[in-house]
Design brief:
This protein has an eight-stranded mixed sheet, sandwiched between helices. It has four domains: 2-157, Alpha-Beta Plaits (2-Layer Sandwich), CATH 3.30.70; 166-254, Alpha-Beta Complex (Glycinamide Ribonucleotide Synthetase, Chain A, domain 4), CATH 3.90.600.20; 263-350 and 411-422, OB fold (Dihydrolipoamide Acetyltransferase, E2P); 354-397. Strand 19 and strand 20 form a beta hairpin. The protein starts with a strand and ends in an 18-residue tail after the last strand. It is of the alpha+beta class. Helix content is 22%, strand content 28%. It is built from eight helices and 22 strands. Bound molecules: zinc ion (ZN). Zinc ion is lined by residues 362, 364-365, 380, 382-383, 385. Residues 362, 364-365, 380, 382-383, 385 line the site of zinc ion (ZN).
């Protein structure tokens, strides 16, 4: 039986992964088989959605049940629902939990429908009505609370195909430490990075020299170690020195760091809240406003859009040096501000050439001739030889940018953004 949970957390705390891990621990105590791998799944969905509580992530896991054993199934469902009711943050207006139970054969038979819905939910805005329609079509057992928005994540996460995937080992705090500063030996985190990068990634920001694998949000997560394999995140965990007691750990298989949210689109087809890859030519030179936020415009053969590189990231320094005519591929999406594309990665495909105008040199005196004014030609100061204005030379000058792909640094990246160190995989 497949079990999916979503939207149980709030900005004030809790986390759907924690709830999932608690339920799995309970099931292990009950001697139930949790998947072949024993691993739950964390599926991130569109990061540009306004209703998200924190990371817009839903969880699912699989429990082996005997087909004919109805009472066992009922017991499992009751356990899940009790945990959900006990731990969800119903008080937060943005928390609208849901949970669903799906039998194996229904999942197999309807995977295509779920996969199509996942692909939409990871990159666009889905409505509760759309989710309701799918739930009706595939006849799944759903439990919705409040407005039931969590159903979107529950259905979508079960359609994730994990065509690319990573792992995150989550470390949970003991309750007595909730609300206190997280205590981890920073040097050991850098030691881990040194030993395992790029097999592990996005755990430290080497330029600002700080660990970035601890959430800014509230408890219960102490940290999350991201990596490409189960073994490597386990090894990485063993290197870290914790300066506070930890409660337990749980590895999740996840679509994080895979760019699963990015679909190539023409600019005219972009809707608000879409995540996308667009290609175009710079048609308005960059402008910098307060705090380093840098804006420019690109256009393709269908439309143009304002693009933003935010001040906290290094991408602003790439963006400010772009000029009209540069050809780019941009990875990102439209979040709060309508018609502004927030950049996660900039790929410079072609740089426009820039030229410097130079006055001609007098062939007799070998000195630089003087301009007589706009369109008035040139004259040698020494021998008074004159040339027409078309004698000016245009010298190509170097750009302070190079073609290539540039990313937001760790700590400022979206969960779904694929770091460049994973491109070779
Ligand atoms: Zn001369």
């Amino acid at each position: 039986m497949f079990i999916a949970l979503d939207d149980t957390d709030s900005t004030e705390g809790m986390c759907t992964t924690y709830l999932t891990a608690l339920i799995l621990r309970k099931f292990r105590d009950m001697n139930l088989k949790v998947d072949r791998s024993g691993m739950p799944n964390l599926v991130r969905l569109n990061p540009n959605i306004p209703y998200k509580t924190r990371g817009n992530g839903a969880c699912w896991f699989y429990i082996e049940t005997e087909k004919s054993n109805g009472s066992e199934k009922e017991k499992i469902k009751r356990t899940v629902l009790n945990f959900l009711k006990k731990y969800s943050r119903f008080d937060d207006e943005n928390t609208n939990p849901a949970c669903l139970f799906l039998d194996d054969e229904i999942w197999t038979r309807n995977f295509e429908i779920l996969n199509k819905f996942y692909k939409k939910a990871v990159s666009e805005l889905c409505t509760i009505e759309e989710a309701d329609r799918i739930a009706d079509t595939i006849k799944v057992e759903i439990h919705k609370f409040k407005n039931g928005r969590g159903l979107i994540g529950c259905l979508a996460c079960l359609g994730c195909d994990f065509s690319d995937l990573t792992y995150e080992l989550l470390v949970y705090r003991t309750e007595k430490n909730f609300g206190t500063e997280r205590r981890i030996d920073e040097e050991s985190v850098f030691e881990m990075h040194k030993l395992f990068y790029p097999g592990t990634f996005d755990n430290v920001n080497t330029e600002e020299y700080k660990p970035v694998f601890m959430p800014h949000g509230k408890d219960p997560i102490l940290c999350g170690i991201r990596g490409n394999g189960i073994e490597i995140v386990n090894k990485a965990f063993s290197v870290i020195k914790f300066k506070e007691e930890i409660s337990f750990t749980q590895i999740f298989r996840t679509n994080q760091h895979t760019d699963a949210h990015l679909m190539s689109k023409k600019i005219s087809r972009l809707k608000q809240h879409d995540a996308a890859i667009i290609e175009g030519t710079v048609t308005e030179n960059p402008k910098r406003i307060a705090k380093g936020h840098t804006f420019f415009k690109i256009s393709d053969d269908t439309a143009g859009i304002t693009c933003a590189a935010y001040g906290v990231t290094k991408l602003k320094d790439i963006a400010i040096n772009l000029i009209n005519g540069d050809i780019l591929r941009l990875y990102g999406g439209i979040e709060t501000y309508k018609n502004t594309f927030n950049i996660e990665k900039i790929e410079i495909l072609n740089l426009a050439k820039i030229y410097k105008k130079e006055n001609p040199v007098c062939p007799k005196c070998n000195i630089r001739m003087k301009s007589e004014g706009k369109e008035k030609g040139f004259q040698c100061r020494k021998c008074k030889l004159r040339f027409k204005s078309d004698a000016a030379k245009f010298i190509e000058t170097a750009r302070n940018l190079k073609p290539g792909i540039y990313e937001v640094e760790p700590g400022h990246r979206r969960h779904l953004s694929k770091p460049l160190c994973r491109y070779k995989i």
